[in-house]
Amino acid sequence: MHKFFLWTFISMLMSTTIQAQKNKQHHKQLRHVVLFSFKAASTAADIKKVEDAFRVLPAQIKEIQDFEWGINNSPENLNQEFTHCFLVSFASEKARDSYLPHPAHKAFVEVLKPHLEKVLVIDYWSAK
């Protein structure tokens, strides 16, 4: 009887581990990385407006699964004048493709345009 319970426990543990690995594999996200450099004439208040306008997008666009952002602080001086990084995550390319023409995203771009010097965008599927 003791062997039966041990075998059952081991089987359940293996099944749980396998399922966890499958879930981890299926939890890949499409990352949309956006880097900005701003015009020299743009003030701190102008840049704050852009930051604030980008930060509200996750509340306005349901396709956004996750969002984070920050300002460069690397001591390497390799940022090529890009100062701001925004990371937007999606479950699928279809979700990303819905985000791009979304009215809230287009409104954000209108806030950004007068202050944007350069932009770099990279999309990739997360991998571990």
Which secondary structure elements does this structure contain, and how are they paired or packed?
Layout: H1 2-26, E1 30-38, H2 44-55, H3 57-60, E2 66-71, E3 84-90, H4 93-99, H5 103-112, E4 116-125
Antiparallel strand pairs: 1-3, 1-4, 2-3
Helix pairs in contact: 2-5
Q: What is the strand content? A: 25-35%
Which CATH architecture? 2-Layer Sandwich
CATH fold-level label? Alpha-Beta Plaits
**Helix share of residues?**
40-55%
Question: Mean pLDDT, rounded to whole units?
Answer: 89
Total number of domains: 1
Describe the structure.
Helix content is 45%, strand content 25%. It has a 4-stranded antiparallel beta sheet. The protein has helices at 2-26, 44-55, 57-60, 93-99, 103-112, and strands at residues 30-38, 66-71, 84-90, 116-125. It has one domain (28-125): Alpha-Beta Plaits (2-Layer Sandwich). The protein starts with a helix and ends with a strand. The longest helix has 25 residues, at 2-26. It has 5 helices and 4 strands. Helix 2 runs antiparallel to helix 5. It has 128 residues and is an alpha+beta fold. The relative contact order is 0.23.
